[in-house]
């Protein structure tokens, strides 16, 4: 949890699991619904945020993020605001493909060259340029109203939170249905997971992404 002298300025949660997560496939710009397990994870998030004050809920316009946000919003009585800007990194032609070592290696070649566009998708740099203003706007919103907003989005955005605030893109990564707090301490922004759901046993075929 964030230090006692820290002030949370924004929450970022990862949507619940989908069939593409479970089959260990790339998602990107694909638009799967939440799997039954993902629905359960969304309700756990709703319970987590039950006693936590939030000002607004923003989410990606993809089904998996929107449905997660709706379940949280129904419990909180807070409206949701959908945004294309909060979509995952668009991995283009990789979307829906199995995450084999060969496919991951091929994608990594583009991630190692941030200015190069992933075939059929976007470049990592374009993604970074898209996400950074969203995070800044969320922090600005806290500064305006004094209550943190909640962003419901994708693992690639949580990767970016880690890269921007914690020196490494995997440093605050959580499983589907996990939650991260962005907080201010002595004028400096940091981030830390506040809820890490347990991995679903392999027998259920639920995969993870990194």
How would you describe this protein?
This protein is α/β, with parallel strands linked by helices. It has a single domain (7-146, 157-198), classed as Phosphoglycerate mutase-like (Rossmann fold), CATH 3.40.50.1240. It has helices at 19-22, 36-48, 63-76, 101-111, 124-145, 155-165; strands at residues 7-14, 57-60, 80-83, 150-153, 179-185, 188-195. Strands 3-2-4-1-5-6 form a 6-stranded mixed β-sheet, sandwiched between helices. The longest helix has 22 residues, at 124-145.
Give a short summary of the structure:
The protein is 36% helix and 17% strand. It contains six helices and six strands. Helix 2 packs parallel to helix 3.
CATH architecture: 3-Layer(aba) Sandwich
How would you describe the oligomerization state of the chains in this entry?
Answer: single chain
What share of residues is helical? 25-40%
Number of strands: 6
| SSE string, helices as H and strands as E | EHHEHEHHEHEE
Helix/strand class: alpha/beta
Strand content: 15-25%
Chain-wise SSE layout:
Elements: E1 7-14, H1 19-22, H2 36-48, E2 57-60, H3 63-76, E3 80-83, H4 101-111, H5 124-145, E4 150-153, H6 155-165, E5 179-185, E6 188-195
Parallel strand pairs: 1-4, 2-3, 2-4
Antiparallel strand pairs: 1-5, 5-6
Helix pairs in contact: 2-3, 5-6
């Amino acid at each position: 949890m964030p230090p006692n002298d820290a002030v949370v300025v924004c929450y970022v949660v990862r949507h619940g699991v989908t069939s593409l997560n479970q089959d260990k496939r790339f998602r990107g710009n694909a638009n799967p619904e939440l799997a039954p397990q993902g629905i359960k994870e969304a309700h756990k998030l709703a319970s987590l945020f039950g006693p936590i004050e939030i000002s607004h809920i923003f989410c990606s316009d993809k089904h998996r993020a929107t449905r997660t946000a709706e379940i949280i919003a129904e419990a909180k009585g807070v409206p949701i605001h959908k945004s294309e800007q909060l979509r995952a990194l668009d991995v283009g032609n990789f979307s829906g493909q199995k995450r084999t070592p060969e496919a991951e290696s091929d994608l990594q070649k583009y991630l190692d060259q941030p200015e190069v566009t992933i075939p059929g998708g976007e470049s990592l740099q374009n993604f970074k340029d898209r996400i950074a203003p969203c995070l800044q706007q969320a922090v600005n919103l806290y500064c305006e109203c004094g209550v943190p907003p909640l962003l419901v989005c994708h693992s690639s955005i949580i990767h970016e939170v880690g890269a921007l605030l914690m020196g490494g893109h995997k440093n605050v990564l959580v499983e589907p249905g996990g939650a991260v707090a962005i907080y201010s301490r002595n004028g400096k922004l940091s981030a830390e997971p506040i809820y890490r759901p347990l991995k679903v046993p392999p027998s259920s075929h639920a995969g993870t992404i990194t």
